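Sorry to interrupt, but I need a hand with the structure work. Please put the record directly below this note.
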Amino acid sequence: FVLDAREDNLYQVAVEASVSEDKVKKRLSDIGVIHHTSESLRLGILIITRIDKPSLKAQFTDGGQDFTGFAEQQYRTRGFQVIDSPIAVDSSQESFEKFRENNQLTAIQGRRIGSDAVVVGQVEISEEAKRPGMEHTEEYRVHMWVRAIRSRDAALLGFREADFTLEQNPSRPMLQQQV
């Protein structure tokens, strides 16, 4: 440093330094001020699908698989790493309800599989009643919610919920994309 001036007990100094943005971000991350990593976040995903009519299942799912696989694909295209290990020990509704109700349990499972966060959600699809004059159009009511829980401390990172209606579309990928 270079001493520029002194006035009573006040000193004015100029400092010349080279600063690495990554090193500053890493240090702030280490002490918990910000989240920074040079790698993308690792996510665990559990999204279940409830469909009120078995005949609709083939239209909205691929071989009976829920929306988890589709969500994984969407997160990967956005730069996230998706952990392949299952979040739940089994795929039962009771097992899912435990994660839905308990952020601490969700975070514990996230740490167990090595994820930074866990995305838990549900997609419910039901057939809408036929409206007069619309007998040849099929409409479906969709209610969905999804939330992200940080594995480190069970903090809620985000929550989204939506209700909407879909008209029949013969393409399964298009239906999944709309949802």
